[in-house]
Amino acid sequence: MTEKFGWQFDLEVHPPGWNFPAGKSWVAGWLWSNEGRLISDLRAWIDGRSFLAIHGLPKPGLDERFLQHPGPPYLGFTIQINPHAGARLFRFEVRDEHGNWRELFRTPITVDPQAGPCPRPKTLAGILPIQMDSLLRHHAAHPDRPWAVLADETVSTALGEPLDSLPNPPFHGALEEPREIGWVRYGRISVTGWLAHRTSKIIRVTAMIDPVLEVSLLHGLHRTDIDGVFADLPGRETSAFLGLVDLPTSSSTPALLKVFAELENGEKHLVFAQRFSPRILAGAESPLPPLSKATYLSALWALYRSVSRHHLPKSPWSELRPALRSAWESFATEAPASRSPKAVMAPELPAENANTPLQVMVVTHNLNFEGAPWFIFELACFLAYTPGTRVRIVSPQEGPLRAVFEQAGLPVQVINVDAVLAAQTPEEFHSALANATSSLPWATTDIVIGNTMVTFWAVHAARLAGKAALLYVHESSPVRRFFARHLAPAILTIAEEAFRLADRVVYTAASTQAVHARINRGGNAVLMPSWVDVARVDAFVSSHEAASLRRKHGLDPNAVLLVNIGSLCERKGQHIFIQAADLLKEELGFTYPDCNIVFVMVGSRPGLYLEMLAKEVTRRGLAARVTFVPETGEIFDFYRMADIFVCTSFEESFPRVLLESAAFGLPIVTTNVNGIPEMLATDEAWLTPPGDRYRLAAAIKSALEAHFAGDRSRSTKARAKVMRKYHQKNSLPLHATLARAAAHRHP
Description:
By secondary structure, the chain is α/β, with parallel strands linked by helices. The chain has four domains: 1-119, Immunoglobulin-like, CATH 2.60.40; 121-334, Immunoglobulin-like, CATH 2.60.40.650; 351-531 and 740-745, Glycogen Phosphorylase B (Rossmann fold); 534-726, Glycogen Phosphorylase B (Rossmann fold). The chain contains 23 helices and 33 strands. The protein is globular and about 90 Å long.
């Protein structure tokens, strides 16, 4: 055993005397930090070549010795090395959870002269398009670090040779997702494939990227295509597995996914190891710096110098020129503008037009009990109650909110736009759009209001009919990323065009407006305050007792309820809520032994995500502390019952659940994403980073301490701000005036 820089390790397997034979060799062992640091990656260097390890492997006996439990984190690792003839030096490095690499070991080596030659090294042109983006994002995240240091980290990453692993007989299977690319949605990777064993029963399949978070996958699902050479494989019909695995922000690139299988005899086997490059499909991503040629040239020069320090060959101009163009175009497309165009208010409506009749078509992306449809419902009602205004609702999907609209006297029409969204070319899009919207009452429509950017097609339909259009955007994700896996590439441009065609694009959060600044170049972006019906909240509170509502919904009248409201989905981050509950379960039991503290999630819907959450609750022994409640129109019941409100979203614009929970006077624990810090300050709520279960648990603990101490300072300040800035009697008239002005001024 060796100890260095606070790390204890042993290279148990290596060629005798570090004399490598020709071909592939193994280096394996274990590594542990006695200072509590975590391993986010391991690699070995043979001269200038980098070989990535499979790390975090169980080491029975040793794990228990250092951890006092079987893990995770697991201490074992293995590296496959194929040294070239003439190589002279072996180095071993570890990367901690903060992204810092540290060399732990080096030794001279010899290699059999019969070994192959050193492979042709990568070139600047070969790594430039991808690594330029990585370097620019690193610079934006760490502007105080020298370009040279960041560039060396970037180039070293590009040189890594990954080691992947497939099942060995008697295991058989395939990992189908992720492969070389892993699509990330709100901090999680989808993992799918199939796995079977010829002689034993697989009782559990787990996966992990995070060094301390092992996730159970759903295994034993039906599969009908495992035939051919596997026609005699027992259990092939129920061999499918799938699940969602957390990707921590500290992960290296390429990240390492490990999938384990546990057999009924207690054995645990690594069955898949896959290195992949994460691609953010939805959720937070390290930002790019503002678009600047000077910044781009600084990054380019740093990469050029780093390539020289790594002794990589220069590229001929014929190869370098297209790589430079590709890297610049990618930067120019994704980077925020150096000066974001300011959102402007619509011109004031002339007095003589303030009461002219107005016929409004409101297009909502669905009719579910979700924040955005409730938002547009309240706006539609306010418009409809204005004398001389008629409102009708259009949706591409049915849902329970239809009855709510109709009870309010707002007619609803459902149309099918599947062919519109499935179009592959602009011609197909416009043809399908004309067919899908032909039955709409265009002759009696003055203005179309599209709610969420999913209704971008409604702006095009309005333009086709010669009508005014407003587009309310609640999504804080760039258009191309948001629709990447749902629209054909040619239709992405059409979706962006809707932002320029709309008379006004309406945002309720400056941060959301900034996300779309690149495509809002027509001076039509409008930043307007959202709203909450404070009078309705107060009336509900005065007429409903919390204890009776708890009995109505089968909840303990004496419990302390931590309530999370929102459709169960990855974006809302309820899995982080459960992880925080797991971190706190023992401490809460000791600190408040006589108090039943319950984590309540309102908004469950059938599907994989709910099934996985329920499985995690059971596996972690949280069934007594965690409750799922289906989607409901009785949301106010749960605000009234709550003791503390918790929002765990990875991405929000200006969430109404926080406005409403503040109006109810609830203490609030929330992620600090997008428009939320614009709504609530640190003295009005407990703000935490998205996806950080440790910080969320700490914030919940602090909120509970304040609750038991009777400290209402944060909730009092939050309610006061909401009443001052977002009261509906002040905000809704502004939105109504905007709609009327846009309709009046539309040519």
